[in-house]
Each structure stands twice: as structure tokens, then as C-alpha cells.
Amino acid sequence: MFRATRFNDFEPAEPNQETSMTTMPPTVAGLPHVIHRSETELPFVNFMDGLAVQLLQVDIEAGLWVVRARFAPGLTLPRHKHTGEVFALTFSGSWKYLEYPEINTAGSYLFEPSGSIHTLHAPATNTEATEAWFAIRGANLNLNEAGEVESVWDAGFILDTYLALCKEAGHPAPNVIGI
After folding, report:
1. Cβ pair 14, 20 in contact under 8 A
2. Domain extent listing, the chain
3. Which residue, among 116, 110, 120, 57, has the nearest Cα to 83 in the 3D structure?
């Protein structure tokens, strides 16, 4: 067995009596090695006009929320500020921030640092819904025209809203990772 000390620099590791290539290291007591949800286990629900969300995972204590989102062509979300970083991957369609020139298309990865302020927009010229995955730490502080906080979307808000929208749409209680 080899241990990487840095990229492309390998050295032999000391043999370990407790683990081998065929045994798994222990996990935190009571937690599985992986937690899986199929696409159909967690429904997409209409969050607002032109925006459907599927809440995949939430950790209220850590302030983490992970969603898949579908944006209708022409959707513009409220201008917002992030209190933590955001990681995004686009699956289909296209979207951008009105404040920046980059356009996210299928396969695009985007990192947003804490403190970033922008307005998400899916161009009206899109011929399909845009689908993207977001892992968000902290909150979206939705801003009004004067730059004042109008509403806050955080892990607790997203969880409560998602559960209520699932119930309202007649879906059984979703088994979101983390609840």
C-alpha cells in the first residue's frame, strides 16, 4: 500500500494490522458508511414562480443546505448576499449572475465566496429548464432595492418550507438527509 505525501510523490505506508484493502475503517458509532437517496425519493416542489427545488440534505447546526434547483427560462431570483460559501454544478440549461459576465452551462462548476452579492438569472432564451445543484453554507440574505435585508433563506427556513410544500403537494414526508 502507498501513501501520497503530495501530488505525484508516493512512499510505502507502514503495514496496519487493523485495516487492509478489504476491510473498512470504523465510522462514527451508529452512522452508516454512506447515505443514499434516489432521484425519486425526494420530490421537486414549486418554491416560487419559475423555481422548483429538491432538498437533498440539511444540517441546521452547521448551516448547510444542499438542493437541486430547476429554473424556468426568464427566472430572476432576488438579489442576495451569502453569509457562507456556495458550491454549484450545472446539469442543463444556462444561468448567470446579472452582475458578472460568466454564463453557467451544463458541466459548469461555480464557487461563490462568503460575502458575495449577486442576482441569479436564467435567460428567457433558454429552450429548457435549467437544472443545477447547490451546496450552501450559511444564509442567503435577500436584498431589496435599497440593499436592505428583506428576507433570509437558511437551512432551517429551507427545511421548513420544503416540508410544508411537500405536504401541500400531497407528497409523503420526504426522507431528507439530516432530518
Report:
1. no
2. 45-168
3. 116
- Amino acid residing at 155: A
The CATH code that applies to domain 45-168 is 2.60.120.10
| pTM for this model (two decimals) | 0.82
Give the start-end residues of each E strand in 19-158: 45-48, 51-59, 64-71, 80-82, 86-92, 94-97, 103-105, 109-112, 117-118, 120-121, 130-137, 140-143, 149-153
119: amino acid identity, one letter: T
Q: What is the pLDDT of residues 72-127, one digit of tens each?
A: 999 999 999 999 999 999 999 999 999 999 999 999 999 999 999 999 999 999 99
Count of C-beta atoms within a 10 Å radius of residue 7: 6
Q: How far apart are CA 4 and CA 10, in angstroms?
A: 5
